[in-house]
Amino acid sequence: MAGTMVFVGELFSRICRRGSTDVLLGEVTPQILGHVQTFLSSNSASTMVDAFDSDSGSLFWLKIMEAIKDPYAVERIAEELLHQLETKNATDIEAYWTLWILFNHVIRNQPSVRSMFVEKFLLWKVFPICCLRWIIQFAILECPPVDNSLTRAHEICGLMDTVQRLVVAWSTREFVQSAPMEQQAYVTAAIGLCIEKISREELDMSKGVMHSILQGVSSRLESPTHLVRKMASNVALVFSKVIDPKNPLYLDDSCTGDTIDWDVGLIKHQKRTSSLSKCKHAETTMLATSELENSVNLRKNNGMHKQARGVKKTSFHSKLFDPDEIVDPATLNYESASDNKEDDDESENSDSSSDSSLQPYDLTDDDTDLQRKFTQLTDVIGALRKSDDAEGVDGALAVVEKLVRASPDELTHVAGDLVRTLVQVRCSDLAIEGEEESTEEKRQRALIALLVTRPFESLDILTKLLYSPNVDVSQRIMILDVMTEAAQELADAKTMKQKHISRSLVSTISESQPWFLPRSSGPLGASPWKEISETGTPLNYSHRYERELPLKPGRIRKGKTRCWSLRSANIQENQFEWVHNKFPVYAAAFMLPAMQGFDKKRHGVDLLDRDFIVLGKLIYMLGVCIKCVSMHPEASALAPSLLDMLRTRKVCHHKEAYVRRAVLFAASCVLMSLHPSFVASTLTEGNIEFSKGLEWIRTWALDIAESDVDRECYSMALTCLQLHAEMALQASRALETAKSTFKAKGVSPPSNLSNVTIKLPFSNVEY
């Protein structure tokens, strides 16, 4: 049979080399699995090894695997076998004996096969969690799943060596930054499943395992991605159970119970997305975009202009305030006083009409009337600076936003001090337990109100505090968050201003009639205009005229009387108009100071390395700002400076995917904000730097789409390329229009215009 087995082994190798391993294992796996199920039903667990060793059918498959000499074929057979067993919903014991029949001898006699299982399949490949559990059980523990009495010698030695290799690779910062998310989740699950099998004594005997685990957990807890922090919390939980089973360490609220879900969603997510078409995958939206916008701590539904104040309350920015109106600030803090009084009157009437409603009155909360009422911003600043008075700070934070939005005269003079005080308030230390988020939200809403009502005074302080060594990372992130929200609110704001309509007092008409009469043109048979006398004041500066119109053909009823007047009846509509987007005036103040000196390493500030989360937030804020001035002249003035910042090598090629996503988002916002006519005029004038910036977006996005390991960066790069292609197409049309205009006027186009080349991604067309 030796020659036959060699022939079959060579045949299997060539089938695998030709890419038909799935077809081969689709026929082989059911036979081996049925063979294993037959033996499991007729033999006990203790006699399974002897039964398989003496069975000719088991020896047949064993000899075939020994005859396969091609390492690639062995690897492909092992991979496809694991996937086939998962598809057929094999149990742990069935999967173990199936792997044992095929690979028991070769994994002991061939070091390359053992290395394939314990290194490549654990560190470089990505399998479903059930397959990972089977690999650990077969190649590392080397015992059936039902065998609880492990011999703690060779098995534990191999287990600790495997854990050592895994945690050393898992704990490195380069692995967190460069490895795909699926691979990180897979290696994390492998470490967790292996740690579950060891004891405290075995962990103490290992060298460096505990230190590597703690290092890997701490580096992942600093990540802005929730999935990475979830991996760290899972490993920390299983590690704490080994150290002290009675006191598990829960770093995540979702980690409850005794079992840990090592399938954190990525493996299943990969299965779902593998069947999607390329078109749908390319339509994946930005940043998700997800991570940067979801990482903003402010909820928009709790914002200033979107928060529901109740049926009887309206938001401040939607009202038209009279600047001469006298407002009592005390009424702003306690708007519900009249409503409470009405409720008290109703309850009093109901009590007097019912004898059974007499109940003892609770006097425990009567001290609420003795609380201090803030009506001046200077009093608010003083209360916020008293860190030992928690009630005073909470009361000041509750009213500061309303006082700021009332825009009193003192706000201009105290805006800077109020901004600095709000940034330095420690809400987590002063808030009541369980209400930290509410207190932080009040602080952020107050800062947003200051940025909206007094932008220049507030930005002068915030941009200085952004790079100040006296604030921590959380305060820097909070500053960037409120600047982002304030920019969006200013862009969505609506105000009314008086129209400036230029009209001539005396119009020249060719007809022989007074200038103040309407034109006599009209349907045939219309009567001349007649002035209608107005009743009212003797001095009437408006004139009203009317005339009779003839009947329309086929109509019996009398025609209409049309009135004409020099002034419209709707004076409000004529004199005022809505003005949208107040942000362009303040765009430079938001962006330029924040971009200045971002790459300098100061005391406590290192955006390019340690504080990469702040750098990502900064770039995201700049992208939102440039998006808020879309199609406005300010976008053309600020885009070159932003592109210069994004083109910095330490920024666009940052090792953290979080920063690269922010750069892709900002670059896409630049493409959306520029008007095609400006791009065309810039190319016509020969602005080389700006042309290089646009070309850099295209080449860099192509490089990210081809080589980046992060899936979100890939999808965002495709979106950026689509936006660049659309911008290039619109700019080329504007250039064609400019050329045709020059030809029509008999003027030769500029010499630079012939040297301009616009490239469309994924196309051979050039303009």
Could you give the count of β-strands? 5
Strand order of the main beta sheet, please? 2-3-4
Specify the structural class: mainly alpha
Distance between the termini: 70 Å
Mean pLDDT: 76
**Residue share in helix:** 55-70%
- Total count of helical runs of at least 4 residues: 35
Biggest sheet: strands, sense, closure? 3 strands, antiparallel
Unreliable residue stretches: 149-153, 269-325, 334-342, 350-356, 504-511, 536-541, 760-767
Strand content: under 5%
Radius of gyration: 37 Å
Task: State the shape.
Answer: extended
Task: Give a brief description.
By secondary structure, the chain is mostly helical. The protein has helices at 2-17, 21-42, 48-53, 56-67, 71-87, 92-109, 111-124, 129-141, 154-170, 173-178, 181-195, 200-205, 209-221, 226-243, 266-274, 278-282, 290-294, 329-333, 337-353, 377-384, 390-405, 411-424, 427-430, 436-453, 455-466, 473-492, 571-575, 587-595, 612-628, 633-646, 649-652, 657-673, 676-685, 688-707, 711-745, and strands at 494-498, 530-531, 544-548, 561-565, 576-580.
